[in-house]
Amino acid sequence: MALKVYDTLRRALVPFEPIVPDRALVYGCGPTIYGDAHIGNFRAFLFFDLVHRYLEWIGYDVRFVMNLTDVDDKTINGAVSAGQDIRSYTEPFGESFLNTCTTLGVRPADSYPRATEYVDRMISFIEILIERRHAYQAEDGAVYFSISTFADYGKLKGIDPSTLRAGARVAQDEYDKEDARDFVLWKKATPEDESASAAWNSPWGRGRPGWHLECSVMSTTELGPTLDMHLGGEDLVFPHHENEIAQSEAATGEPFVRHWLHVKHLLVEGKKMSKSLGNFIVVRDLIDEGYDPASIRHQLMSAQYRRELNFTRAGLDGSRSAVQRLLDFEARLDATDTDPNAGHTHLPELAHDLTARFRRALDDDFNSADGMGVLFTFVNRVNNALDAQSVVRPEELNATRRALGGVDQVLGLLEVAHASRAVDDDLAQWVEGRIEARADARASRNFAAADSIRDELAERGIVLEDGASGTRWKVQA
Question: Does the bond joining 239 to the residue before it have cis omega, within 30 degrees of 0?
């Protein structure tokens, strides 16, 4: 089965067909860096990461680009309120976003274009649209895209063209999602824009680009006139992505995107997330509560991206148990004895089955939920096989390890768990010393002292496991 994706434009599950076989040009609508991205945002960004990882895993040469919007109404309002210029105001939020991406295991994009770095290209783009009679300068000094000149306007959302309000204009960066009007490409500078250093010279006077224009220019500059895949949240379908299509195809004369994929909104405890409800959560909040990054990653990827995901603390506790189960399984593989002369097991068949079934799941529109289900079924089956035969052939154990590692290249759960639980050399040396002291206490039958040492280690998040081969330890979330 080849990869199939649900294309928002075609409203159907279709084969993924990039322009060039074995190459994938992917653009993800990134955050507006006027505050910390919340877990709803990161549901989308972790889906972007899943796409990035899986396309590479199945052999595509991926060029992945994600923008950082650093100039729009929100960033300017924030900068003015803080008494800062727009660069100083947005820079910390951009750094915070990228740091959180690293914490959650999001692979770096090939490029993170920022809108303010592409203003000259945006001006040139607008000039092309004016020359082709798709844009005009209005009496308010701004330049607008004329939706009446683009016959296919509304095709992504499925809007009836006869309902469009041709000639009516909107200048703000966000507006009623069902109100189709000529949208702004270039906004006349206001005193607030000037005070935030968010205004540039142009043929139409001092001003700044409109939000919708920014993504078209950044994506086509970085990836060319036609993208293989454009990713974003479902709230961006209209007007943002609709407007991207119109202005991009009007300017280039080429199809803008071959495949549109949109992530469904996240609920928190069954409700839409909002600050007024007190359920607005950023990743740092969860880490401060004691949840580890791998558990957060698991929870946010636990439902297929087009299906509703209700984020709950109970669900997060379940994700923590799931990640620990994977770590325990990996540790069991590492501790399994091998012998070239041991009897044969079904481990190679189980490993092959994992890879095949996992690929079938992800080929079905990146179904991460089914992919995780396949993985944990594999864990159960291998554990049962090891219960029946604790000494196995090294090549069979290695096949099991390779299959697990291959799937984790896509899911990233063990990868993130290890990164977040990494232990520095000084701590490791201290732990080993305390374990030796505990062994001495037990040998002397001083069980109170041994228990005290175990408790001391537990306070540092170190869990001990006593077995026939000695005491092993691990970092517990």
Answer: yes
DSSP annotation string for 58-72: TT-EEEEEE-BB--S
Picking from 378, 400, 420, the residue at the C-terminal end of a domain is 420
DSSP 268-291: ETTEE--TTTT---BHHHHHHTT-
Give Cα separations from 106 to 42, 109, 290, 293 (angstroms).
10, 9, 20, 11
Per-residue model confidence as pLDDT tens digits over 373-409? 999 999 999 999 999 998 999 999 999 999 999 999 9
Q: Which residue has the tokens 């993504």?
A: 215
Same domain (yes/no): 178, 257: yes
pTM of the model: 0.89
| CATH number of the domain within which 402 lies | 1.20.120.640
Q: Which two tokens stand for residue 401?
A: 């390890």
pLDDT higher than 70, residue 177: no
In a 10 Å sphere around its CB, with 0-12 CB exposed, 13-18 middle and 19+ buried, how is residue 141 labelled? middle
Total structural domains within the chain: 3
Structure token digits, residue 467: 């077995």
- Asked if the bond preceding 92 is cis, omega within 30° of 0, the reply is no
Same domain, 440 and 360: no
Query: 320 and 434 share a domain?
Result: no
Query: Mind listing the pLDDT tens digit for each residue in 219-249?
Result: 999 999 999 999 999 999 999 999 999 999 9
Chosen domain end from 236, 263, 290: 263
Expressed as residue numbers, the domain containing 471 is 425-475
Q: For residue 386, what are the CA distances in angstroms to 104, 327, 465? A: 32, 16, 18
Average pLDDT, the chain: 92
Of the candidates 61, 65, 68, the one whose C-alpha atom is nearest the C-alpha of residue 26 is 65
| Amino acid, single-letter form, for residue 274 | S
Domain co-membership, 326 together with 195: no
